[in-house]
Amino acid sequence: MKILVSVKRAIDYNVRIQVAPDGSGVVKNGVKHSMNPFDEIAVEQAIRWKEDGTATEVVAVAIGDDAVAEQLRTAVAFGCDRAIHVKTDDEVQPLTAARVFKALAERESPDMFLMGKQAIDDDANQTGQMTAAKLNWPQATFASKIELADGKAEVTREIDTGLETLSVDLPAVVTVDLRLNEPRYLKLPNIMKAKKKPIEALAFDELDVAAATPIKTVTTKAPPKRAGGIMVETVDELVAKLKEKSLI
């Protein structure tokens, strides 16, 4: 079984986001970036399958500028066999990513395309679904448990009312949720070895992919500062304040 797993570079989840002074977006220069946490879970799952013999090859794929190579090397340090970097200096939105991933899937012929359910920078939650539609493959999203057998994937997914279990034929696109696993800590020797491994670089032209018309962000604003609380001395005063704010 061959698995493609997508990797996205995003601002580290521990960073306190600051809006750029001109409102064009958030401050990215000089800010720590890391692998999107949901993608890290996807990589971990693919490597676990490789370790137990379920998967024979795991290929990490990413789109972006030269800096994305850092996250691909992290994926290799986890245990991915190969890494493919589709280079572009432009912002990559979900439809463009889906077109690239379709081309890579047709080129690599995997049994599964594993992705994080969403990226923590834009929270779009669209790329996996769009990729499945482009490939005309089955899809299962928000996976918290995946079992593989007989050319099928049985996926337990998280929904608003609880859990739902789907069975999809392979090849398929599966997007993973937070509770699927806990990624391992990387060992320094693996990180050092990953720095020496080559990363295959491709251009959009080599994949015959055109970027989609981007959705333009008009302006970005920080949320309003939270107002201070009000101390009340009696239940009646509390009820009055809640009614005043139309909360009851």
UniProtKB/TrEMBL annotation:
Keywords: Electron transport, Transport
Pfam families cross-referenced by the UniProt entry: ETF
Cofactor(s) listed in the protein's UniProt record: AMP
GO MF: electron transfer activity
SUPFAM superfamilies, A to Z: Adenine nucleotide alpha hydrolases-like (SSF52402)
Top-level taxon: Bacteria
A biological process from GO: carboxylic acid catabolic process
Domain Electron transfer flavoprotein alpha/beta-subunit N-terminal: 23-211
Family label: Belongs to the ETF beta-subunit/FixA family.
Function: The electron transfer flavoprotein serves as a specific electron acceptor for other dehydrogenases. It transfers the electrons to the main respiratory chain via ETF-ubiquinone oxidoreductase (ETF dehydrogenase).
Assembly notes: Heterodimer of an alpha and a beta subunit.
Name of protein: Electron transfer flavoprotein subunit beta
Species: Salinisphaera japonica YTM-1
Lineage of source species: Bacteria, Pseudomonadati, Pseudomonadota, Gammaproteobacteria, Salinisphaerales
